[in-house]
Automatic annotation (TrEMBL):
SMART domains: RPR. Residues 21-145 form the CID domain. PANTHER family: PRE-MRNA CLEAVAGE COMPLEX 2 PROTEIN PCF11, PRE-MRNA CLEAVAGE COMPLEX II. GO terms for molecular function: mRNA binding; RNA polymerase II complex binding. It comes from the Eukaryota. InterPro entries: CID_dom (IPR006569), ENTH_VHS (IPR008942), PCF11-like (IPR045154). The lineage of its organism: Eukaryota, Metazoa, Ecdysozoa, Arthropoda, Hexapoda. This is Pre-mRNA cleavage complex 2 protein Pcf11. GO terms for cellular component: cytoplasm; mRNA cleavage factor complex.
């Protein structure tokens, strides 16, 4: 395992490079995210490519997107692009309570036309995210919108299985 501290008791060069790289990723990604005010497909694709090229920092990238992105549908489209185009570890990283919270907070502040787009987006995730996560998103949204259908876990699961066969 690489040493984090050199013989002089100071941070090693490897440690400093890694720290600088992480700092650079946060800075670069923050700049890219700040450009995604509207649902500009080109800007969203740039972030997906960035995430793909730096998959070894996927945890940091996912955290940055969830914590620093605006609570907007554009930010959800960034996540959507990454999970559908890069896939892999990003699906796991975006499959937690923070994703439910991000979707819910975005929904709460959205107007009806955006909520309709979010409905379509959420249903495009069948077969990408786990049925359990999708059911939790549905239940959370239905608390603030009684018209939001809560797809039962079994139905989501059977839909997910059928599209993968």
């Amino acid at each position: 395992m690489p040493e984090l501290i050199n013989q002089n008791g100071k941070p090693s060069n490897l440690y400093l490079k890694n720290r600088a790289c992480k700092s650079s990723i946060i800075t670069d990604l923050s700049k890219l995210i700040s450009k995604v005010k509207s649902c500009n497909k080109t800007e969203i694709e740039k972030i997906s490519v960035y995430a793909k090229e730096r998959v070894e920092y996927a945890g940091l990238i996912a955290k940055c997107i969830l914590n620093n992105g605006a609570k907007s549908i554009a930010n959800l489209y960034v996540i959507d692009s990454i999970i559908k185009n890069v896939r892999g570890v990003y699906i796991t990283l975006f499959s937690d309570r923070s994703m439910i919270r991000r979707f819910s907070e975005t929904f709460e502040s959205a107007e009806s036309n955006i909520r309709l787009k979010m409905f379509t987006l959420r249903h495009s995730w069948n077969g990408v995210f786990s049925p359990r996560l999708l059911n939790e998103i549905d239940r959370e949204i239905s608390k603030s919108d009684s018209n939001w259908p809560v797809m039962e876990f079994e139905k989501i699961y059977s839909y997910s299985v059928s599209i993968h066969q």
